[in-house]
Structures are given as structure tokens and as C-alpha cells.
Design goal:
alpha/beta, 460 residues, Rossmann fold, nine-stranded mixed β-sheet, Epoxide hydrolase
Amino acid sequence: MGGLTQVLVFCAVVVAVRAAMIESNIPLPDENAWWGPGAAEAVDTSIRPFKISFEEKMIEDLRYRLKNHRPFTPPLEDAGFNYGFNTAVLNDWVSYWANSYNFTERENYMNLYPQFKTNIQGLDIHFVRVKPEVPAGVEVLPILMLHGWPATVLEFYKVIPLLTEVSEERGYALELIIPSLPGFGFSDATNKQGLGATEMAVIFRNLMHRLGHEKFYIHGGDWGAYICFNLASLFPDEVYGYHTNYGISFSPASWITWFMGSFGEGAQNLVVEKHLAGRLYPTTSILKELMTKSGYLHIQATKPDTIGVGMSDSPSGLLAYVFQFVSMAVRIDNINKTDGGLLDHYTREELLDNLMVYWMQNNFNTACRIYAETLNMRNLNNGWFSLSTPVPVYLIQADNDLLYMSTPMLQHIYTNIVHNKAIDGAGHFLASEKPELFSNSVYEALDMFRKQKDDCKDEL
């Protein structure tokens, strides 16, 4: 084991000891915390229909900015995306957005499914809600589906028809509730400090109650995954089961488990199956890759308002910053391609639709604050990174995702893992990249959750 790994193991042990000291006295978030402006006040609790609208003034301003940017700095020779977004292809993207993107057509697409807003804890929360048309006697299961950064509710548009189709063989249908995270998309941002993933879990639990669901299923990817983990940990009696395509744990115990696998092949075999060992080891190679991938995370977790200024003012800069991340998150090998491989798995419209939401709402800045409000000493000292849940969990992890976590690593926070599936040929945004694969995994998860529930009844 190398010196770097030894240092990391020592640091992780110190953090774990600190976490264990406070784990027995974990403070719970306020279920009625007020995140709106000023002091708490009575609010309209109705559920109001909502429609996305591209204002002509916004379109004119966007086109002007796209057509009047300063010349981009030429890229280095053979740089690919190794230095970030390659400006050799940036002009083409900017020109397409300004001249060929059909705003009317894309606005109609964004309004394809019913959308609503309701005020939760002082914030207007936006959500897509799709109910299946079912014959009498067919059970309808509610599932809350949460996106992450830099995604929006549009990430799930391809799977909505697949997840709401009615099948006699299946015996149940799904009601989908797909919100914009606070500060993202069409949900309000707070003007108060402290609204991180744990607090968002409370907001979405209260949203589901508002919609009449005291108990429900959940899915999350990226930040949505960590919010769902908090929701399942804080309110386990209200969650039937949790499906995720992002096995993330901030628990020090999970990372210690990983580092311990560096002590030799025998230890490694206790951490991960042999055919998946390349996803976790050698440790130094994985750490190097994580550092390469996570440059965005460091600035967003420390100075989100600084990077937010440039993203708010320049659509070209916003495109370069977000699309560079998408390129890497879809396939790490895209870093060596001049075009970033962006059109290998998505159309221009799909990528620009997602970007349009950030631009028109001018909320790149507020969306980035989730990093600073979650990845901090407050949450470590509260013990929230070391929460765990007995809720049944189904994981599907792609080989090209940002990271992989094995079952022994995740068992520190998920004590009831019903399945941890490793798949090849997919990336971070599984729902939009592989909608059929994603949808099938959701159904498989629900079947496993329901079977476990029935088995428990039989035992009683």
C-alpha cells in the first residue's frame, strides 16, 4: 500500500472516530423550517397548474448574447476535452443555439406533461405529476423521482411513458411525481443559509404528504440520490423502497472500507467482487480519476456565488461549463475527443433543452449552492453523513458513472440492499441515456420491494 493511501486511511479513520462520537446524538432537521423570504407566514397551500413559457424578451436577449460574445481562446493542439470544453467546436454550438434551436417547438416539448406548483415551507416547489389511466381495481403506486446537477426534470421525460403504461401482467401502475429541486428549474430558491440535501429531503416528504401520499417509493440520481438517502434515513416508515442509479455514500465508514481493500488481494476480495475490482482498484488510479472528474465540485462546494456570476452573464460560458461536465459524466473517454462525444448519446435539442432551463430561470448559481450547503463541516458534525436506513434499496450502477461503490461499502448506510446491479455501456444520466434499461430496473426494483413486503407479512 502506497504512502498516499496510508495517509488517506489514517485521515478516514480519524473522521470515522469523530463521526462515531456524535452518531448517538444526531440532531434531526426541523420539519417545518421556513425557507421563504423574511419570517414565517401563512401561505397558499393549494396545488396550482403551471406551464413553461419562453418570453420573447428572454429569447431576444439570449440570441444577442450568443451572437456578440468575444472571440474564444483557441484550444491547444490535440487537447480534446482535457483542458475543458474545446473551443474549436464551441462556435458551432453557439451558432446552433442562436440560429437553429426552435424555441416554440422546444417549449411545447417541455410542456408535454402536466406540471404544478405548491408552496412548501415558504418555497414554491415545481413538479411534474403524471397519473396513469387504470381500470378499477388496479393498484397505483406513487413514486417520487429526483434529479441532480446539472440536470432538470427533463432528465425523466423519456421514461415517463414507459413508467406510466398499464400492464395487466404487472398488476399495478405508477403515479410519477417529479419535482425541481429547490433553487433548480422552476422551484424557488431560498435566501437563507443552510438548505442542503438533508433539508430538501424534508421538503419533498412534505410535498408528498401535500399530494396525499403518506407512504411512497422513491428514486434518485446524482444529488437526488443523496436527498433520497436522507429521506429514507429520516423517515423510513414512510418509504416503501428506494431505487437509485447512483450508489453514493459520504459515510467515513464506507470510504474506510474501500481503503482497507488496498492492503492486498485478500482484503480487496472482501470489498468487491473480482470481476468488478477494476472499478475500485488500484486505489491511487481511482483517486487520480476522481480528482480529474471533480474539479467542478471543489469550486461549487466552496464558492458557488463566484462561478455563478459568469454563468449568469454568458450563455456561451454556461454551455461550455455544463456540457464539459456532461461529456465527462457520460463517458470518461470523451475527454480525448475534440467534440467531447456530446452527440454520441444525445441530440443537440436534448442537451440545449436542459441548458435552457438554467438560462431562462437564471438559477445556475442557486442550483450550485447545494454543494456548499451539503458538503460542509456542519453536516459532518451533525452526523448526517453517517445516517443509515432499513428501507429496501435497489442499486443499478453504470461502468461510466462518476464513481462505483460496492455492497460492503454501501452496507454502512443501506442495511437492506435487495440488489446491487453493475452494468456496462452506460453513464451518469441513466434515465435519459438508456430509458428502457432504466425503466425495466425500476419495475424490477418495485417487484423486489413488494415481494419482500409480502414475505414479511407471511412471516408474521
